[in-house]
């Protein structure tokens, strides 16, 4: 076997992956997720890709691996569910089997007048209290369901019959068909079931063990073994899992870890009740922990169109109140054990992220700061603290967008990044796009009395510089903020810094050249990603608009839930019928 040559960053990260249960994400050189996998032991599993013979498919995957990310969870059940969520979201190239999974089962206690215990694979089919999902392949989910049916004498029939049935005769039903049942009886049963799924199973297991012993003593080994297996399943299923929430609200949970005057912050985003996104960042800890986390949250969510409805984070009450009022997000300290557990998981992920990225971050930071100091000398701006960089993206003047990234003291600050849809429908040139975006950005900055940048970099030449300068002049700040451009040669390679008055040729072996190239790659990646998102959404809307009987509100709901037309098409009809009729769902599948 020819051994895969790994880049130094990946080698270092692989050594730091913990011996814990979780999900790993292989990425290619373009930072695209190409495979999502689960593991009982993340360290051992990820090492196996490079230390043993692989089949042809895995060999192709390994050749494309450039980076890795991972999420630590509490148990195998959580890793199975998280793996499915992430595969559905990212549809990685090398994942096939789980890509269009129909999901894991739930057990529901219905909210009917005479409640039932129901087994379902959809969390939306019934009104009631849902428990699950149950993902581990060795959990006897249906066995547990049957056991609950026998243990708790709720009605079995879908529609209430008018006469006593067999279940009443064998005392597995309260027989509401012929008996008047006090509501308190149902409340007590519901509480017992909730205790069962909350892990309060001591008395129940004690009772089952007695039965198991009796069967064994009477040589009824098959029945004894069945109860033994049931006890094992009860123990496993009663273990909480925190990957899918029953709430359909968008909820973020934030945990942080502090070491060596640095803070690592992890944001877990639950979208429609499913953990789909993890955002992490290492920052210098320049203030108190409470102030640093508060500032980070403010910058992260401010003007973010994908903000959650609710956010759980450990902060003092004044900070939570101020953030809630400013961001219009309900901010809470976690009170329930479930969200306390999720925060603990986020903290653990922050710690593992720090351990696997700290030295890489420090090395990159050192190199970038040295290059930044050289860059300051070239452009002759001593007090250079904030740089804004702009780029435009469109194809044949369709879906025109602009993007801005920011650097503070030479380091990227993703919390200050901004996206722009071009509002001028008559605009059809880079000059007009740049003029609009620059004017909108700094008109708002002035109105909100925020800090202006010390420098603007446009990804382009004299045309883009002129557009930016005129926009700044109309705002009367052209003498305050200098503008430079990154000029490309005939081979479309950046070779010079240009301003209104001068041109500086770049040495392609210099730190400054690589510093600016890194900036260009970042703004280009950010702009292109936004352009593709908008293009996909526009295409999706046009396709959905063609379907008779589907309105704009419904289209908006579908795109909000599934993100793009591909995800909508690949969703099961049963799932789509939560938003549209069965007939329209069938038409969607034919797009």
Task: Give start-end ranges of low-pLDDT stretches.
Answer: 97-102
Number of helices: 19
Number of DSSP-assigned strands: 19
Shape: elongated
Largest beta-sheet characterization: 8 strands, mixed
Helix content estimate? 40-55%
The separation of the N and C termini measures 45 Å
Overall pLDDT score = 81
Counting helices, strands and paired strands, the structural category is: alpha+beta
Share in β-strands: 15-25%
Question: What value does the Rg take, in angstroms?
Answer: 29 Å
Concise summary:
The protein contains 19 helices and 19 strands. The chain has helices at residues 8-16, 42-51, 56-63, 76-90, 141-151, 166-169, 183-197, 202-217, 221-237, 289-301, 317-327, 337-379, 430-447, 462-474, 511-545, 552-562, 565-570, 573-576, 582-589; strands spanning 22-27, 33-39, 67-72, 106-110, 117-120, 128-131, 251-259, 262-271, 274-284, 310-312, 330-332, 386-395, 398-408, 411-412, 418-421, 455-458, 483-488, 494-498, 503-505.
